[in-house]
Amino acid sequence: MIKITFPDGSIREYESGITPMQIAESISPRLAKEVLAAGVNGEVRDLTRPITQDASVKLYKWEDPEGRHAYWHSSAHLMAEALEELYPGIKFGIGPAIEQGFYYDVDPGTATIKEEDLPKIEKRMQELIKKSEPIVRCDISKADALKMFEDKHDEYKVELISELQDGTITLYKQGGFTDLCRGPHLPNTGYIKAVKLTSVAGAYWRGDEKRKQLTRIYGITFPKKKMLDEYVAMIEEAKKRDHRKIGKELELFTFSQNVGAGLPLWLPRGTQLRLQLEDFLKKIQKKFGYKQVITPHIGNIQLYKTSGHYAKYGADSFRPITTPQEGEEFMLKPMNCPHHCEIYKSSPHSYRDLPVRLAEFGTVYRYEQSGELHGLTRVRGFTQDDAHLFCRPDQIKEEFCKVMDIIFIIFKALDFKNFKAQISLRDKVNREKYIGAEENWEKAEQAIIEACEEKGLPATIEYGEAAFYGPKLDFMVKDALGREWQLGTIQVDYNLPERFELEYTGEDNQKHRPVMIHRAPFGSMERFVAVLIEHTAGKFPLWLTPDQVVVLPISERFNDYAYKVAKELEMQDIRVLVDDRNEKIGRKIRDNELKRIPYMLIVGEKEAENQEVSVRKQGEGDQGSVKITTFAEQITDEVNAMINAWQAEIDF
Fold first, then answer.
1. Is residue 431 over pLDDT 90?
2. Which residues form the TGS domain (predicted)?
């Protein structure tokens, strides 16, 4: 008999060799129908794999990421099986589960797989599903695995196998299809119910632009058709909200091949939006005691070798910049932190001076692969709302709470109501991979946990997910479509103060190392704006929108009055434009509704005589006529209430 410990701490005894599926059946027939994979001593496994010794077991369902991963990983194999039957001689690269669904990189040889071929592949997958083919795990030697795929002339699998250690290789078989894979997988293909292949793209083998471009087929599956229907509806809505589409419509940003791929150009309206965000955060930071700094876009290569960023990001960076001086090299900066360390180091500090809070909207550069570039969400040059706090170990908790306050302010101001947090701590056992004193780590980890408790923030704890230089807290936000984005991070760092030999004089008159906190509430301005566009569908809050008001004269006769109205509003710092096109007023209203401008002011003879404006509000229609000064006061009050509301909630 073996003892099985469940997540609630309860223990049951079973015969050695029992499978997770049999355990689920012993608990409840319903659970057995819903379970998709199992965690055995922290390792995610197939439900059919025997357990032969005492173990901690967790059963994963669709609601669990591990359950969905097994479901979508099996779906990738199902698609591969269908492809092998439809395209004889096809070769396979990798086919992982991803955050939403799965993909497989394939080499179809002389054939071409296009979007219009996807329904045919889906149909074959549905036919295979009906067979409920068992998915069987097999251990195999490296030599046998190599021979098997060499005989198939599948050079991609051969390359992958050649890098593996003997004794660690497994295959999974279903029907006539066999794939190199670690698993885990579903017990059989019958678990998969609703199938949708979503797109076809090109992908270089192993992400290397110098190697062959394969065909990447994306798909998603669900245990119920209703869930697939809801997903398809969400995707259609996501297309309407695509930040690239709305960004073009609202004239926020553009890209130019002459400038370079992945290097966004912010247009006047987009710049206005971005500056509003920056000014908002700067105002908050000033209240919290931050000092604004500016650092160069480049730095001596030795700076990034000292910080460790050259080792970490060197392969993904632009090539070093050489100068006329022999042997001198610079880099486009991959991170702002080393520059801030040098600013801190430029003057001596006492324990009374700490914390020192340095903030910068600093642009950094990474050479993302061209296939990974995507609008503003994946770019090669991006601006971080970076800040680095240099503090004593006993100040970590207080500073953490203050940074959390800033993040909460931003989420509230931008209507991100649905978010969660993850605390990443050290591995409970393997401490060797972390730097810094055990005492400082204990203080930092406890400070983060207590800060979350103090703020009433539910947070999951993940052991082994801490950075090697310190624990961290990440915020994951769900947008209006339920998609999850990581926005906002707070990290504790013992590494850079050590590498840069940062010091402060303590109360004991001895030299001590400060602890460094990295924080970026927005993350990057580019990615944050992309998420914000898709979350709001381009209907930004009044305080943030590039154009708050548009004045619509009903005919050319009233253009002069329209510009007079605009001038008076501009004097009150209201962002306004005039639509003086020779079009009917109904057309102007429709066109400006599409531009998502919050307020439309219609002016004609009556309004000109009475020094009034007829107000229409986005999505609410006619609001009646008011004096220009009254409208200006209403707008100003509305904006001030929005951007200043946070101050009443924070005790400085």
1. no
2. 1-61
